[in-house]
Amino acid sequence: MASFPAESARPLEAHSTPALLGQYAGILAELRARGVIRTANAPVGDYAEHIAQQVYGGTLANSSVKSHDLLSEASQRIQVKARAVGRASNRTTKFSTFRSFEFDLACFLLFDSRTYDLIWARELLPDVARSLARHSDHVNGDHLTRAVVEREGTDVTAEFRRVLELAGS
To answer: What is the DSSP string of 79-141?
Structure first.
């Protein structure tokens, strides 16, 4: 289980909400310009895809492609799932929904929500992911929990951390 440092002071508390949102928009614009993120959504998913591309090589798929996020240099279709979690999150936290299992490898990244530091990275083959996933009629898809992925996935954290250190990301 990940450990989190003690809460720190709130250096931004004096800023107004509109000022903070303006800074956030500026930060997202800069991350887009650097090629780290591709959308205006919360950056964890785009950041995870960016890191996965550095690990596996290859090309990021268009956002409209539902079956995979990355086509690796080895021609593997890779689905990338990411979550940013804080101390209060528990092991039943779910990764985003699978709409398809038409990929060759699922890669899961777990980040600290306050620092975006990588906590761990895991891989699952599609048949394993499908067998462990729980279907939700509400979202018409399947999902995996943090605990299941952490327990059943192949640990590839070292490879991801190595790339992060080399890239200075």
So the answer is: EEEEEEE-TT--TTPBPPPBS---SSEEEEEEEETTT--EEEEEEE-HHHHHHH-EEETTTTE
Instruction: Determine the Cα angle at 63 with ends 89 and 117, to 5°.
Output: 35
- The per-residue pLDDT for range 21-79, each reduced to its tens digit, is 788 888 988 998 999 988 767 789 999 999 999 999 999 999 889 899 999 999 999 99
What's the pLDDT score for residue 64? 84
Residue ranges of the domains in the chain?
43-167
CATH superfamily, domain at 43-167: PVUII Endonuclease, subunit A (3.40.210.10)
pLDDT over 70 at 16, yes or no? yes
Residue 135 Cα distances to 55, 60, 105, 108, angstroms: 30, 27, 19, 18
